[in-house]
Each structure stands twice: as structure tokens, then as C-alpha cells.
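Annex B. Sample input.
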Amino acid sequence: MGKSVQEIKTFVTKGVLIHLRQGVYLRTRFAKRYQGDTGQYLLRLGAALAAAGPDAVVSHQSAARLLGIDVLGKVRDEVTLTWPAELGRRGMTGIHVYAADLPREHVGALAGLPSTTAARTVVDLARVLEFKAGVVAADSALHRKLATKAEMLAVIEALPRRRGISRARAVVECADERAESPLESLARVLFKALGLPPPDLQVWVGGPQPAGRVDFFWKEFRTVAEVDGALKYANPERAREQLRRDSALRAEGYEVVHFTWQDINYNHNLVAAELRKAFERGAATQARLRRAAS
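Annex B, continued. Sample output.
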């Protein structure tokens, strides 16, 4: 603005300017455009970019938030940016900076702010977070059609020696666009870790008229698994419909098991035991049906 410190303070006192962060101000009339949590977050991002310099871009968790990509765990309060590797990693209040050179094709714009693309954002998260968190982000991006596996793999090929890139490749290979929630993603990662066969996802089961669409289905074991988030059955009618559907599936000889967030994240032995028992019962039912049909 070309104003002295005292003049800026006067403008803030009079309400002409709003102080966003050290050295960054915005005219009050422009700030009115940014309402609610989303608007306030955009102001924080813009202020962080202004403080970091013209070569910085929104990335990692902050880019995921702008894109609507699910991120496992508590959302970080600090803004996450990436700037050129030559600038190194320097501490900035309220900003976590990653130092990396970004190819032009890995950068786009969101809400008028420079940001990593969805594919690059997923790969970056998969490199720095644990495997299951990476799968949550990758599944979310695929399900929302923000990026394709081919695009994610192209980013990986462009970063052959980056730390965590092998984990990122494993994340993308595991990712599935049919997963509809973070809990479904976490369940699939757990099934894999337990050595269970991979299930089919979002399948209509039962016949001749299907009883319903289920989260996970193992056809060879006639077993259905559902994961129940805290809000899944907040609607009583939906809960009653779930009970009716389960009853219909069991009447047709399907095994139906339900797991909660607590089970998937902390009761791994219970999940393994319940599924293996269901597999045994379902396989026996399948064998009887085959004998009866022969």
C-alpha cells in the first residue's frame, strides 16, 4: 500500500482495514465477501500465501480441504503450503511449509488461489501420512471424481525418488472409487491387513429382487458386512429399514455382520473372528445349495 505503520494502524482502528496476519491486511469492504467457516478459511489461505511469497501454493491438508477430499483424523489448524525446494523449510506462524519443486501440471487454482491438483494432493498426503489415511484420501478423490488412478500414477511417475513414494503407489493401487465413506476405506484396509479375501463393494444382494445394496460382499462365502458410522442410523426409519433388510438377507441364507467405527479402528480381533465365523457358515450354506441344485 505504500503506507507507514502508523497510517496502517489508523486504518485498522477506523475499520478501513482488517489485520489478517503479520504484515497482511485486507480492505474491510472486500472481507465482507468471505462469510462463514469456508470464507474465513479462504482468507487465512490468502493471507498465508501473501506472507509466503509468490511461489507458494496451497497443498496437502489445506488443498484437500479446498477440494473436498476426506482427510483422516483431526483437521490441522495450520495452513499447509508448498514452495520451491531452494527456499528450504522455514518456520512461519500458523503455516506448515513443504519445500518441493512442483511441475507446472501439478498446480491448478481453487477459489482463485494457486493449489496442487487433486491427483498431486492425494499423492502428497499418501507420502506423508500413514497408509490407511492415504487410502481414505485416495478413495475420496476417486469417488468424487476429482482425479483418476491414471492421473495419480502419472504424478507418482514424476516423483520417482521422493520420500514415501512407494507407500503412495501402494495407496493408489489399493484405492477404490466405490468406497463411500472414510469408514468403508478403513474397513477395506483392515480386511487386507487381516489377510481376508478382498470383498466386492456396493453390491445389490438377494434375489430374485435384491434385498438391498450392501457395503461389502463376499459372494463365495455368502457374507455381507456393513460398517455403521455414528450418523448412519440417526433416522429411526432408516434403522428399521436396515433391520428389515438384514432379516430378508438372512432368510435367503446370507450371513450379515455389522461393525462400528470402534470395531474397525480398535477391535481388530473381533472383526477377524466375526468374519471368519461368517465365512465358515456361509461356505457351508453355499455347499448345501450346490448339492441341492445338482
